[in-house]
Design goal:
The protein is an alpha+beta fold and about 160 residues long. It has one domain (about 5-150): Alpha-D-Glucose-1,6-Bisphosphate, Chain A, domain 4. The protein contains 3 helices and 8 strands, in the order E-E-H-E-E-E-E-E-E-H-H. A hairpin with a 2-residue loop joins strand 4 and strand 5. Helix 2 (about 120-135) packs across helix 3 (about 145-155). The two termini are about 25 Å apart.
């Protein structure tokens, strides 16, 4: 399984972290993270902007429900730092770091300032990264199944 570890620290203003080892070169992983054709297969539809330092991107996750991110830092193939804000949530911050090693790449995702939403985001990022990996392996999953995958991961109360 590509998941190396994940954690949630609710005491630290709601911080989640995922570390994955993905059987993909860093350049291909970066393509999956930032390319407008790849993003809809794992995260949502890129409505506007691009992943460049100082830029702003808007990603639609569902009909009329978009997240806006201000790109703080971006080094293609290595590092992405951005804010994260849905209309009904406080602004938080996401950092993604890539470290290649042979034919695999380590991806470390940190999402901070989530407050009480941290546990939901821990599971949500887990599913999003499963979808990203499937895309990179040439076996994209249907986003129509995202919530059923999420429920199978966390259990359906």
């Amino acid at each position: 399984m590509p998941l190396v570890n994940c954690s949630v620290d609710a005491a630290d203003a709601g911080r989640v972290m995922h570390t994955w080892s993905i059987a993909s070169p860093a350049e291909r992983l970066w393509w999956g993270l930032t390319n407008p054709e790849a993003i809809p297969h794992w995260l949502g539809r890129l409505v506007s902007g691009g992943f460049v330092a100082g830029g702003v991107v808007t990603i639609e996750h569902a009909d009329d429900y978009s997240c806006t991110s201000h790109i703080d830092g971006c080094v293609p193939g290595e590092y992405l730092s951005m804010t994260w804000q849905f209309p009904d949530e406080a602004r938080s911050h996401v950092r993604i770091m890539l470290k290649p090693s042979g034919g695999t790449t380590s991806l470390v995702l940190e999402h901070e300032e989530l407050g009480p939403e941290a546990l939901n985001y821990l599971h949500g990022w887990h599913v999003h990264l499963l979808y990203l990996e499937a895309l990179l392996l040439g076996q994209p999953k249907s986003m129509d199944e995202f919530w059923s995958t999420y429920k199978s991961l966390v259990g359906d109360p």
